Structure formats: structure tokens, C-alpha cells
Fold each of these.
Amino acid sequence: MAKDEFTKIESVSGENGQSANGETGGVSRPDRRKFLQNTSLASIAAIVGTSIPFGANLPAGFVPAATAQDNPLAGKDGLTLLNDRPVNAETPPELLDDAITPTDRHFIRNNGLLPDDMDPSTWTLTIDGFTDNSMELTIADLREQFEVVTRALAMECGGNGRAFFDPPAKGNQWTYGAIACSEWTGVRLKDVLEKAGVQSNVIYTAHYGADIHLSGDPEKAPLSRGLPIEKALTDNILIAFEMNGEALHPMNGAPLRLVVPGWPGSCSQKWLTRIELRDVVHDGAKMTGTSYKVPAYPVEPGQDIPEEDWVIMERMPVKSLVTFPANGTDLAEMETEVRGHAWAGDRSISKVELSMDFGKSWMDANLDAAVNDGAWQNWRANVTFPQAGYYEVWARATDSEGEMQPFAIDWNAKGYLNNTMHRVGLRVG
Ligand SMILES: Nc1nc2c(c(=O)[nH]1)N[C@H]1C(S)=C(S)[C@@H](COP(=O)(O)O)O[C@H]1N2
Ligand SMILES: [Mo]
């Protein structure tokens, strides 16, 4: 019972991370003041959100000392803080009810500290390695030289659902909310790589960001991952400079990031400064050891396997979430709409089914097509309960290849790829 998903979410849902906001440690950040001085009060208010007391009464030109790094959930709404150094925060399922995830509800997964300078007007992106022409592009260059597209793209952290592993897995104890589907605007990675000229020996990309290693050591990167070149050249990967029609939130990679839908979130480099084309698999931070890898064969819970038997995770598996009603709701009526989203890496969803009787019987939900390739799919159903009492709603999605969400976790030591069914408890009548 201790590892039961339902009891777990009950115990988590009360504690909003605000209380856990502490000091972020002793790194002094002289450039921060400069950044703030160059930023209008309106955009600071947007960044720090409601956390400026009496913000409306501030004299013009006053710059509050609050910063995104020091105030991790600024500009976020209702997220649960799992860690404040580095900042990691997830979204309770019932706050993911929107078809398009608002920026203030998009989860945050950082491996290091924010860059000191996130100025979009001076930001550059370098494309180099095995290219015909290496390039250095400003954000204005990207807008001018390539087609600008807007896409709803689902992104899930590879460790979403880690909290339910038994034996437990180390790392951020994500429950359900390291998933989001915001609307991203940018240029296609493919178009940029093709303009640079991908040489025939290229097999992998390497992504570099401007965030700072927790140690403060400038020689170390918090995270630098890559993609097989065939994946990098697909259509729906964006180099994004807008999120839901506005500049990126600092915690979500401002001013420029990759968005690779359907693959582990770690592929979507934030604060993107460089993409290198390589003739070998990338060996950057969190590409080696067992990071973002899963066992090459089925293992027993708790089983230790040699490092060479771990393979790099690629697409994320089929999964769904119930976003309404919230877990623990008291329903006065005997019927309700149940709704949520489903997604399946590079595949589409063919079916979402619901059970109200612990899996004894199942009904089909109404499933929408994705608004575009790479987006999650919304679903809903009207559910009538036979009598008053306690129920669990279970949701189970099936993908276009017939793969279905499991009931139990396919265990691995790192706590990746948990796509078990979401269960929501309701008291009815
Ligand atoms: N530069 C950089 N990019 C990064 C990370 C990071 O720590 N540094 N974290 C990655 C991981 S593990 C995930 S799941 C996603 C999360 O994106 P988000 O914080 O915008 O939700 O960003 C990825 N990109
Ligand atoms: Mo992640």
C-alpha cells in the first residue's frame, strides 16, 4: 500500500512547493542586476508573477531584487517544487486540464542554474561540426532566414512517474506532472541543419546550452545531449523562441531552446547556444553512464546490470492523464464528465478507455485527433456511476501500433519510462 500511486498523490497534493522555496545557495550573481536593469518592469512582473508584494504600487523604474533563480516558481501557477537547486517543479494533473498548457503551468526540469544573461537581442546559435558551412545565427537571423512555424508539442521528462518505483529510484520524485503540451513558435531544426549542410559521415547531433553547472565550474555543463541525425532531420522538431505566443519563460529555456516532441525531455536543450554535427554518438553531460538509458533486456526489480547493458532512451511510450475530475473529488451528482490527454512518443493514440470498477469493465472515451503532429490528443467521456460510493477512474491509452499502457511498472534502476495507467479516486453521491 505504501507505494500505491493513489495514496501517493493524495499525500503529495496538499504541499505546494512555495513553502520549500529556500535560498538558492552562495553563488553570487553580479550580472543578474544588469539583466534586471535592462528589463522593463512589466516583463519583470511577468517573470516574478504575483510574488512582488504591492507590485502595482511600485514607483516607475524600481527594480525588485527578485530574480527567476532566486524565486524559482515566479511566473508559475500551482506547481509543486521538488527541488530548488537545481529547480525542479511539476504540475498537478488537474492543472493540466487545458488543451494547450499555459506557460505558468509548464513543468520545470533543470540540471543546473540559469544562465546569467538571457538577452534575446544578443543571443547567438552556432551550427558547426561536420557541416558544409558552419553558421552563427542571431534570433533575428533565424526569423529572417527560415520559415517560422507554430506547433503544439508535447514534452515529457524521461523520469516522469519515477516516484512510484519500488525499489525506489534516485532522482527527482516526479509523480504525474512532468508533461506539458504548450504552443511553440520557432524554426524547424531540419531547415537549419539542411542550410548548414549535413555531411555524409554525420550520425548524431550534440546540443549545448548556456546554463551553469551546480559547481559553478564553467568547464562543466549541467546537460548536453543529442539526437540520431535521422531523428534530428524530421519535421516537427523546433528551435523555439516563443512559448504560447510570448518570449520563453526563463525557467523553460529563454530565449532559445529545442523542442523535440515525443522523446525524453532531455533532448530538448534549453538556453540553446550550439548544435554540433558529429560522426560519433554524442558524449556530453548526461549522455554517458546510465543517464537517460534503460536496460537492454527485461530486469527484475532491484536488479543491478553492467553499464554496457544500458541503451539510450528514444521515443517515450504511450501514456495518458486524467485532468478532470481531480483525484479526491467529492461528486454530488451521480454522473460527471471525465477528461484528459494521451500521447505516445512518435506514434499517435488510437484509443483511450476508462474503467470505473478497478479494471473489470472498460468503456471507450471520445478521442480527438492531435491538433498537429507532436501534440497530445484530448479525450473525454460522460460517466454515470451505478450507486453512491467510492470509485477509481482508470485511464488506459493504446497507440497506433497497438501498444497499451500497463497496470504495473516495468522497473529500471533509474526510474525512467513509467507509463502505467493514471488512477483518480472519487467519492460519489
Ligand atoms: N540546457 C539545459 N537544457 C535542458 C535541461 C537542462 O538541465 N539544461 N533539462 C532537460 C530536461 S531533463 C527536460 S525534461 C526538459 C524540461 O523542459 P522544461 O523545464 O521547459 O519543462 O528540458 C531539458 N533541457
Ligand atoms: Mo528530463
Amino acid sequence: MCLLLLCVFLSCLPFYLSAQTDRQNEKPIIGVLAQDVYLPQPSQTAYIAASYVKFLESAGARVVPVMINQTLEDYKTLFNSINGILYPGGGVSIVSSGYERAAKIFYELAIEANKRGDYFPVWGTCLGFEQLMYLTSKNTILAYTNTSGAALPLNFTNAEDSRMFKGFPAQLMKDLASEPLTVNSHKWSLGMLTYNTNEELKKFYKVLSVNTDGNVEFVSTVEAYDYPIYGTQWHPEKNAFEWTRPSIPHSPSAVKTTFYMAEFFVNEARKNFHKFETEEGESKALIYNYNPVYTGTKSAFEQIYFF
Ligand SMILES: *[C@@H]1O[C@H](CO)[C@@H](O)[C@H](O)[C@H]1NC(C)=O
Ligand SMILES: *[C@@H]1O[C@H](CO)[C@@H](O)[C@H](O)[C@H]1NC(C)=O
Ligand SMILES: *[C@@H]1O[C@H](CO)[C@@H](O)[C@H](O)[C@H]1NC(C)=O
């Protein structure tokens, strides 16, 4: 009898193991980091541009705003409740701000968790990319570039053996390499020369694409070698969701780029199994508790969540 049970158990084992590795979190919740508004008002001290929320929602994630100025304990609890985090673009300090403090805490928690086999993805866009470079190198290493409103094709470097671009259709990769589908909206960049001479950055990140402003060659897309940490100096979320600047591309391939980037990151979050302790805690944390405001007539963003 025992032997029989053992056999049954053993024959089940391979199925159980493969079920384990294929297991996916089909209800991923991703944190999006807030930042101080430039001119605070009583009811508007921090914000998240709605395009980052739509970006993640378009690929099947729900979003929780990660407020700045919270306690370390609150951030740890939130970290253990969400399945990934996105650091958006913006205009605050990457050396000392509420954004920087929260980004650093989540970055360190993510590194620790990933080392333990708790897969926790981190994404940085534009300022978020610059923040990641600062957190990894512990240095202010950015160079001025003339890239305040430039749509550029990606000059791919190692994209063919990247995790990020692996699932992209071949035609979209061709379009990305030949058409200006990625919008840059920054004055500071990680120069390729700086990357090549910075041991910390070189051993941590693989460069997937570079660009130039005609003068300085800069890193435009990275993924970490050993961690699910990703950054784009350009804005994948804008193509589908922002209309305020003529430099933002909206062609079918540009909009597909938004979606495939979002899908990649949301799939990364599906590999994480953190969850809120209670359903009530989850409901209270979701971005649905806030309403975005239409700001497209006076801001670079069509809609903004204010906190
Ligand atoms: C966060 O803290 C900083 C420094 O104390 C303060 O200037 C800022 O107003 C705070 N912002 C929010 C949104 O709490
Ligand atoms: C910056 O780039 C724009 C084109 O994107 C160009 O028209 C302008 O002359 C450049 N400015 C400088 C100072 O190079
Ligand atoms: C792409 O980047 C490589 C490596 O830095 C450089 O040699 C090449 O000239 C760039 N190509 C374009 C079209 O800018």
C-alpha cells in the first residue's frame, strides 16, 4: 500500500514541479512611484502622470500609487504586497528627494529579495532610468545632451540576446531600429563613455541600445544581468497615451512599442507572488481610489493623479 502510494506520488512529481515553474500570478499589481509637484498646493503635493498607469493597465496589471515620505516600515509592507515597481519620469532630484528615498528603499529591497529567489522586477523610465544609474553607481555621472524633445530610432547593441526584446515581433524590431519611434524628453544622459569606464554600471547592466544627440553617445535602454531591473531613457508610455508634444510618435508601430514594452514588464511582475494581507487593504491601496485630472492644456501630461 505504502509502495503504491509512493509510486503515485513519484509519478505525480514531475507534473507538480513543472506546474510550479510555470505558475504565474495572473493578477499582478505594480507600484508606480509618486513625486513632489513643482508648485505644491494644499490638495496637490505629489503626483503621478496617468500615462504610466495606463501603460501598465494596458498589459493586464493593476496599479498602486507608491506615495513619497512614508516610513521604512510602510514601504516594507507595501513591497511585500506588490509584484513590481515602476519609477516614472519627472523633474525631481535623483540625489535627495522623496522620490529618491523611496526609489532607494525599493531598489535595495528588490536586490535582497531577488537574491533570495523572490523575483521582484523594477522598471525606470527617463528620470527613473537616471535614478537607477545613480543607485547602482552611487555617483552622479550624467552628461548634458540636447534631447529635450527628440524622437529617435534605437541603435540596438545587444538586443538579440536580451530578455526585454526577445518576445518582440521581428518587424517591430526593424521599425524600432529604422524609424524614430522612441521619444526622448531629458537633458541628462548616461554617456556611453561614462558607462564604459564605470565598473559598477558595466558589471550590473547590459546596454541594449544607444543613441546620440549628434555630439554625445548615450545609453538609451538597459537590463541588469542578474536582476529583473530595467531602464529606458526614452518614454515607452507616451506613444499611446500622451498627445501634448509634436515629438511624440503615434504611428501603429510606435503604439505597438508601448504595448510590447508594457507586456514585457507586466509578464515580469507575473513571476512575483507578493500579495496584500487582506482584500480590504488591496482595495484601499489601488489607484482606483483616485481620479486623474485633465491637464493637457497646461502640462506635458494629458492626465495627472494628484495626491
Ligand atoms: C515630503 O517631505 C519633504 C521634506 O520634508 C517636504 O518638503 C515635502 O513637502 C513632502 N511632500 C509630500 C508630498 O509629503
Ligand atoms: C538641439 O537639437 C535640435 C534638434 O533636435 C536642433 O534644432 C538644435 O539646433 C540643437 N541645439 C543645439 C544647441 O545643438
Ligand atoms: C550605433 O552605435 C554604434 C556603437 O556605439 C556606433 O558605432 C554606430 O555608429 C551607431 N550607429 C548609428 C546609426 O548611430
Amino acid sequence: MYALMKFFVLLFAYAVLGWAQSCCQPPGGPNLARPVEANQSSTYIYALSPEVGGATVEGTADRAIDGNKESNAYLHPCSHTKYEQDPWWRLDMKQSNKIDTIVITNRQDCCSERLKGAEVRVGNSADNNNPICGTINDISKPIITLCCNGMVGRYVSVVIPGREEYLTLCEVEVYTG
Ligand SMILES: *[C@@H]1O[C@H](CO)[C@@H](O)[C@H](O)[C@H]1NC(C)=O
């Protein structure tokens, strides 16, 4: 009897461990965020650093899916909304996918705290009210990894709810298991 109990406790422990490990493994599959389409609530225009030519760029939504993970927004353009209430960014993958991991590169030259409280949502609704995969609370590292545990959806949204803010994303990657 005791041996049987021990067996089930161990089985449970391994199942939990296995689940924890399968989530947020280094991504294996293709990045589903490319090449598709992204949009955002508004677009901010700014000048790059003189050391890279100083061109004026639009921080369009597709800057976050251009395959470049530079986290200095003045060296390489990041997506960048205007300062506004509840800014959002949304990826349209054109088909529903099962999503394991979302990897976000946050801006580092300044302002990384702006992303605090951002909700990352996954689902099939083209508004930004899909279920939440994760909320960004820890902005201490440039790379933020969220586990969606197989959430299914065509859209990935990043929304900053409840305040006026800029929403800047240097890269968003989406992976299946
Ligand atoms: C992108 O979002 C803006 C702001 O809501 C909207 O006006 C525009 O029609 C959208 N563009 C596309 C291609 O969906």
C-alpha cells in the first residue's frame, strides 16, 4: 500500500517536473512571428542616433518582428506607440497556432520600466481581449520569456492597461513547443 502511494507521489512529481521543463525550453521550432503582420494603437516617429546615420524612423508595429533583437531603440528601430491611454500592439499570424513560448526583447537604452504591467494575450479574437498568457512584472532583464502552455490563437497582443504610456517592443518571438 505504502509502496503504491510512493509510486503515485513520484509519478505526480515527475509529471509536474516534466511540465515545468517542457515550458519555456529554449525554442526549437520556427519563430511564428515571422513573416506575418503586426499593428498597434498608434505610431511614434523618432530620430536614430547620429552614430548610425541619424535617420528619422517610424516605430511601426513590424519593427518588433523584423528579426533584429537590438535593444537600443536609437541604434535599430523598435516598435513604438505614441504616449496614450492603454496602448497596444498586435500580431496577426493569419492562422491559429498552439503557442508554448513568447520571447520579448525589451528596450534597454532607457525606459525599460514602461513595459511593467503589460499583458500578453493569445487568442482568436481580433480585439485585444483574448486570454492572458502572462503579465510582465519583472523588467530586470532585456529578454522576457513567457510560457503560454499551449494556448491557441491567431493573435498575440501586448497591452498596457490602465494608464497612459508608450509601448515599445524591440522584438517579439512566438514559438510552439
Ligand atoms: C491598425 O490599427 C489602427 C489603430 O486602431 C487602425 O486604424 C488600422 O485600421 C489598423 N490597420 C490594419 C491594417 O488593421
Amino acid sequence: MSTLKTLTLVILIQCTIFTESSQQPKQKKVNGYGDNVFNVIGFGAIGDGTTDDSKGFKQAWDVACNSSAPSPTVLVPQGKTFLLQPLTLNGKLCTSNPITFQIDGRIIAPSKAGAWQCRPNCDHWISFRKCDGLLIKGSGTINGQGSNWWRLSCKNKNKACPSRKPTGFVIEDSNNVEMNGITFEDSPKMHIAFERSTLVHAANLTIKAPKNSPNTDGIHIQHSTNVSIHNSIIQTGDDCVSIGNGSKYINISNIECGPGHGISIGSLGINGKTEEVEFVHVRNVTFHGTTNGVRIKTWQGGHGHARNIKFEHIISHASTRPIIIDQYYCPHKHCRNQTSAVEISNVTYEDIQGTSSRRIAVELSCSESTPCTNIIMKDITLRYKDQNAHTSSTCLNAHGFRIGRVEPNVPCLQKHDNL
Ligand SMILES: *[C@@H]1O[C@H](CO)[C@@H](O)[C@H](O)[C@H]1NC(C)=O
Ligand SMILES: *[C@@H]1O[C@H](CO)[C@@H](O)[C@H](O)[C@H]1NC(C)=O
Ligand SMILES: *[C@@H]1O[C@H](CO)[C@@H](O)[C@H](O)[C@H]1NC(C)=O
Ligand SMILES: *[C@@H]1O[C@H](CO)[C@@H](O)[C@H](O)[C@H]1NC(C)=O
Ligand SMILES: *[C@@H]1O[C@H](CO)[C@@H](O)[C@H](O)[C@H]1NC(C)=O
Ligand SMILES: *[C@@H]1O[C@H](CO)[C@@H](O)[C@H](O)[C@H]1NC(C)=O
Ligand SMILES: *[C@@H]1O[C@H](CO)[C@@H](O)[C@H](O)[C@H]1NC(C)=O
Ligand SMILES: *[C@@H]1O[C@H](CO)[C@@H](O)[C@H](O)[C@H]1NC(C)=O
């Protein structure tokens, strides 16, 4: 190439860069996709697993967000690995709804906790905020590289320890969100959180982290209503699903849970707080060696309620506490007995079968001042796993009914055959 040609080319490129950066980010042509598909590769993402691709993702989102194309789709293509620093994609001012986020490739976080660009607080890794109409789907994987965080102890004021560990994937202040098919692995803390959102439907998810990874809940629901979670496999070091304050109309079904801590409502009422959860329906769930099966846990001294809850068609394979209500929840073991409690009422357990790894398969520990009421058990058979022998129950301040076969016997519930 002659010097003159090279010079002209350099000038041309520089002009192009200049004009592009002074306007909206412009998509480079990437082969094989329609005009409504915004491939992150076309917006500067590299996908080599080491370059920070956050900017490319953000630009693809911003363009899709105001695209006039029908059903705009941000594409994270398969066969590549994208490294993301903490990233928030905001849907508040988007004119094109709904937006599809198609994840077929692999997304990873920085592997060393110290390489995260979010000091001092790392609350979230990837978050979708204020979206109305969002479909997140695909065959891809989102890996939070949590192992370095799991080792960080924050108890000894370790300098390297940030004040909070990040939740992997957050949907917040959003409506009409659907998630389908994605795999989540090794989050530093919870894998997925739905916060202050309504009409969120998740299905066909796979969530995996080691059994001993701390606080790696599968999905946490907080201040959210009309949420469903279906057909998913969740194996973690904490609750498969946990349901916190302000949540109602929650359906959870067809879940394979374990290892993990089971499906939990709560903990509610820490430090005297008023917290409430209601209308939760959990059905067709299998627990594999979990520490709890279906659990409701509240701190002493709280206010509010957990009520109108149904657990049905549950199978336990050797979980430690298949059925538990714990109104004395106190993981740090320094709790005073107090007079107030989050009120637990109208909880139905129906068709719960399988084995328990502990003799006591049913534990109802309710508050003295605020007993549990209208607890209903119907068709329960839980056997002790080792000898296929009988299990037993413990009961404290729990009232309600048992219908049909209930094994172990739960004598604090009145026998009632016509409900
Ligand atoms: C989308 O358009 C709205 C309204 O025109 C504008 O306020 C907003 O900044 C745009 N968003 C992006 C990401 O460009
Ligand atoms: C889950 O995936 C299956 C198979 O890919 C699909 O048929 C089904 O519709 C999906 N479920 C939901 C609720 O989208
Ligand atoms: C929960 O299930 C009930 C009964 O199947 C259904 O009417 C309701 O719409 C579901 N709600 C959600 C949020 O999926
Ligand atoms: C949420 O679910 C409840 C009960 O099914 C229903 O009455 C309510 O209309 C739903 N809310 C929305 C926003 O769809
Ligand atoms: C719990 O949720 C309720 C209802 O959304 C709210 O009024 C209350 O302030 C929340 N409590 C706490 C401690 O955040
Ligand atoms: C229960 O869940 C399993 C998968 O965990 C599924 O194969 C089965 O069809 C579900 N049964 C019902 C009644 O939904
Ligand atoms: C008890 O809870 C169920 C949902 O599990 C609900 O359908 C029913 O209306 C509740 N009953 C009362 C008396 O609140
Ligand atoms: C608190 O109350 C429970 C139930 O009555 C009792 O078993 C426990 O010993 C009490 N703990 C203390 C510290 O008083």
C-alpha cells in the first residue's frame, strides 16, 4: 500500500470514529441477524473472557431500548465468553417495550473479588432496573465466579472485605418480566433476586453452586407480587427459594431442590421489624438431601404475618427437617425470648411424602404469645431414611387440624376427618 493510500485510510478511520462518538453508538454490521437484533459484538463487546465487555452490553441495551424495530432483541451470542463488571441496565425511559435479552453465550464476573469495580459496596452484579416488559431467555450461562467471595470473611474486619457481597442477577422495580432457560452458576451471594417487582415469571432455569458456598440462595423474592417460578433445578449452599417481606401471590412449582436449605418463607421480623408474606403456593417440589424441606422462619420480637400458605405434592429424599416452622429463628444463637412475634396462620401441608434424615421429621416451634393457628396437615408420610422406620414430631404452641393419614403423628393438631 502506498503512503498516500495509508494516510487517506487513517484519516478516514479517524473521521469515522469522530463522527460515531459524537452521535448515538452505532451498531457495526454483524452477519446473519435481522434489523431488530442488537448483537453485543456489534457494539464493541469482544467475548474473549478477559476484556471488560460491560460497555458493549450497555450500548447494545441503550440502542435496543429506543429502537423503532419490532420486538428489539439484545443478543449475547453463543460460543463466546463475556466478562462483565457490575452493570445496571435501566429500562425507565425506553420507548420500545418489550425488550428481549437473548443470552446464548457465557457471561462471567471478574474472578478475583478485588478486581470488581464497585468498592466499597458491591450490592449487585448484573441488574435490570425499572423495566416494563422484559424477556430474558436463551441457552447461555451466567457465572458469578463466587469462590473468592465465599472465602472472604467479613467478621474479622478484613481490609479486602467489602461491606456487602454482591447478588448475582437482580430484577428490580420492574413489571412483566419473563425469564426462561438460562443457567446460573457460582454467585458470590444470592444468584437471583426479584425486588419491588410485579408479574415476574421464571421457568426452565438451572442454578448451581457448591453445597458449602455461603448465602448462595437460588432465587430470593422481596417486596414483589404475582411471581411464579416453574420447572427449575436449583442446587446451592443456601435456600433454593427464599421469600422475604412484602411478597404475595407467589407460585412455585416443579422444582428439583438440593443440595441446599430448602424452600423458605422468611426469615421475617428481625430486630422487631414488621414484615409480611401471604398467598404462597408451593407444589410439586422434590428435595434431595436438603437441610430443610418447606420452612417458615421468623425472629422473636417481630410483627406482621406469614399466612395463607400452601405446600403440596412435596417429595423429600432424606432432608433433615422436611417440615419446619421456626418462630425462634436465631442463627447466631444470642436471642432473648420476647413477647411479640410475626403471626403465622392458615398454613396447609398436603401430600408430603418421602424420607427424613433425622428422626424428628415435623417440627412446629411457635411463639408462646402468638401461637400458630389453622395449621392443616393432610396425607403426610415421612419415614426415617436409614431404617425406613417411624419418624416423630415436635409441637410447641401450634394449633390446627390433621386430616387423613399423617405420619409422624402430630398430636397438637386436632384429628378432623371432614374438611
Ligand atoms: C430513549 O428515549 C427517551 C425519550 O425520547 C430518552 O429520554 C432516553 O434518554 C432514551 N434512552 C436512551 C438509552 O437513549
Ligand atoms: C420450558 O422449556 C420447554 C422446553 O424447551 C418449553 O417447551 C416450555 O414452554 C418452557 N416453559 C415455559 C414456562 O416457558
Ligand atoms: C398461581 O396459580 C394460580 C392457580 O393455578 C393462578 O390462578 C395464578 O394466576 C398463578 N399466579 C401466578 C403469579 O403465577
Ligand atoms: C396478582 O394476583 C392476584 C391473585 O391471583 C390478582 O387478583 C391480581 O389481579 C394480580 N395482580 C396483577 C397486577 O396482575
Ligand atoms: C415490609 O413490607 C411492608 C409491605 O410492603 C412494608 O409496609 C413494611 O415497611 C416492610 N417492612 C420493612 C421492615 O421493610
Ligand atoms: C412435577 O414435576 C416433575 C419435574 O420435577 C414433572 O416431571 C411432573 O410432570 C410434575 N407433575 C405435575 C403434576 O406437574
Ligand atoms: C387460607 O389460605 C389459602 C391459600 O393457601 C386461601 O385460599 C384461603 O382463602 C385462606 N383461608 C383464609 C380463611 O384466609
Ligand atoms: C425461650 O422460650 C422457649 C419456649 O418457651 C424455651 O424453650 C427456651 O428455653 C426459652 N429460652 C430462654 C433463653 O429463656
